[in-house]
Amino acid sequence: GETRLYHALDAGRTFAEIAMSAVRYEMDGDVGIVIVDYQPVNALSAAVRTGLGSAFTKARDDKNVKALVITGGGRTFIAGADITEMGTEKSKVKPDLHELQKMLEEFPKVTVAAIHGTALGGGYELALACHYRVAVKSAKVGLPEVSLGLLPGAGGTQRLPRLVGIDAAIDIITSGRHISASKALDLGMIDAVVDDLPGGAVAFARDMAAGGQPPLPVIARNDKIVSIDPAVFVEARRKVAAKARGKNAPLVIIDCIEKACNAPAEEALAFELAEFRKLYASDQSAALMHYFFAEREARRVPGLSAEPNDIASAAVIGAGTMGGGIAMVFANAGIPVYLTDVSNEAVERGIALIRKNYETSVARGSMPRAAADRALALISTTTDYADLADADIVIEAAFERLDIKQDIFARLDKVMKPGAILASNTSTLSIDAIADATKRPEDVVGVHFFSPANVMKLQENIRGARTSDQTVATVMALGKTLGKNVVLARNCDGFIGNRMLQYYTGEAEFLLEQGATPEQIDRVAMAFGMPMGPMAMRDMSGLDVGVLVREARRASLPPDERFSPILARLVDGGRLGMKTGKGFYRYEGRDKFPDPETAAIIEDVARELGIERREFSDEEIEFRLFAPLVNEGAKEIEDGTALRASDIDVAWVNGYGFPAHKGGPMFWGEQVGLDRIYAAALEAAKRNGSRWGPGKLLERLTNEGKGGWRDA
Ligand code: 3HC
Q1: Which residue's CA is the nearest one to ligand 1's atom 29?
Q2: What is the pLDDT of residues 142-153, one digit of tens each?
Q3: What is the rounded average pLDDT for all residues in the chain?
Q4: Is ligand 1 within 6 A of the CB of residue 215?
């Protein structure tokens, strides 16, 4: 990455030299221009802060300077505090961000932040200390600290409400959303949109300077934060808590914004800083920081040197829910895509569903009408494979049966242009077996999306035994184009994610046998941060489906593998889940209720098996549910299914809704202790069969007393 390159360039230079090159200072007539140029994203590293401090001093003391413009070199303005320096000695180098802001707020001449790319976190907070903010049309601004389990610790919770009001500030800071320049202008986050930088900003600064004295700094403007009804915060806490699902930072952010309204600025700023430090020291922030780097690391495949091919057109086979969703993913990214199926009716049904999905997005306000129309226009339909021939990639999302897929791939092999990528969205079948149907196995790869494909962020790429480096590089890069988070899996049963899932749902049923209730299990899973409990999830996907999948797999499993009979027993009793109005729960519409009949069936099963039932603490349930995930994840690292532990975290956060503020299952496993996971796996193997036992890697790490996957 560029960071690494940059730090290589740092070597052998003094800190002063690095700071000098990190921030340049130029003049355009009577306007001083400060250019922050520190790869990759101009973060507020020690070098940048030092450079800014001396540039501000120079501009302040220069009588010929009438106004000051601050801008970013390279692809962006300042993307925030330097996350890689947080907690290190470098973060203590003076001036700190607060001191820089003070210099700007006391600046005797007009200051203008000139934004392109992104002004995020501490970067936007620096801009908030300027008298004015201008941006080019493509720029985005925001305070995304909440995504790292933090709050804006340099006055963001104090200054933003003064510009945009309480409601908008709560929304922007608790969501961490990036705001487009035009929206930011409407809200008051910026003062003008300019055509070019730094020219547009210099002209703006000159105009403002001609008007006389600089205006009041943002921190001294109070009209939007006085006389706020305390009920506003009660309501905001209720709303935000419901969405936060256990995350701390969003509620602390509201505390800080409330403080802005009730205390003098100095006191409220000190409160914000103290709260920032508490959050920084929290487990949640450590987990989210881990996750931030995990997502970026997952894109990199060691040893892969091939350059990705350009993907300018695509085709999707299968116009069902999944295929339609995948077509939308390409269209949303601006890539023209063919949608195809066996009959005109199937294709028509597919495109009608897509149209409906876009209509819903527009009605909900999550997509502008023009964007939806643009995307829809990029989707063409056909039933003739010959039409797909020129596509750079084709993704098959047909029925999950090997003979069907092999037939499709044999036909694709005949028509597709040389070098086109032939991808399967399979979640269970072997990529190698699918590739066997073609004469170009090097071009065959798994590209697995999660339902609904246009919403879920995970793209799990699966490398077959003969998949070429070129193909792997291309589908990894494609993830970024499509706005997905990618991981690379080696071909195996269930790949990274689904291979683990069966242990989570399986253990939930064993817990039922032993005395836990569906309601308790689901409540614990949701309190942990999962979007839905495992029992409710089963009810939604259909208990009969679960039974069928198990029966199909049984032959390939060790003879000592045990399945709880509860699922099959419920299905026999006509309880197939939501679609029949009863499963683990009883349903009235979408509302679910505990069902005494289900409880009786579970008790019967336990009695027949001679299992003694007991009470479970929430803590024990939590550990029992998630420990088996970690155990199977360790086996994936061991056998090369996953490149690294953190990739598994990325897969589970994006594909299964595992809470990012717990860092992902593998990070969570390190927190609870790998030795405990190991002991639990030994127990589980006794109860459920040898497949549940620990692998060699976990055993070795435990025996050597190692606490983390990096020690592997
Ligand atoms: N500090 C240090 N490195 C950072 C960084 C940051 N704030 N933000 C990004 N990087 C690094 C990434 O790790 C990556 O490094 P790599 O190439 O070695 O993997 C490189 O910059 C490029 O990042 P992306 O791959 O994410 O590039 P994109 O172009 O997709 O996205 C971005 C750019 C929108 C800036 C995105 O990186 C991002 O959202 N960064 C985080 C921004 C953020 O959270 N800022 C707030 C920090 S906390 C703060 O400011 C506290 C303050 O309130 C006191």
Answers
A1: 41
A2: 999 999 999 999
A3: 96
A4: no
- The predicted complex's ipTM stands at 0.98
Query: pLDDT tens digits for 332-350?
Result: 999 999 999 999 999 999 9
Token pair for residue 303?
């040893």
Residue 296 Cβ contacting ligand 1 at under 6 Å: yes
Q: What is the pTM of this model?
A: 0.95
**Pure H helices in 211-320:** 231-244, 249-262, 265-280, 283-297
Confidence class for position 15, pLDDT limits 50, 70, 90? confident
Q: Is the CB of 128 under 6 A from ligand 1?
A: no
- Of 7, 83, 290, which is best to mutate to test ligand 1, by the most ligand atoms within 8 angstroms of its C-beta? 83
Whole-number Å distance between alpha carbons of 517 and 614: 11
CA of 329 to the centre of ligand 1 (A): 24
pLDDT tens track for 303-336 = 998 999 999 999 999 999 999 999 999 999 999 9
Best residue for ligand 1 mutational test, from 41, 84, 180, 292 (most atoms within 8 Å of Cβ): 41
User: Which residues contact residue 338 at a Cβ distance below 8 angstroms, ignoring those fewer than 6 apart?
Assistant: 314, 315, 316, 379, 380, 381, 382, 387, 388, 391
**Closest Cα to atom 32 of ligand 1:** 79
Q: Pick the closest to residue 554 from 567, 536, 541, 540 (CA basis).
A: 567
Catalytic residues: 125, 145
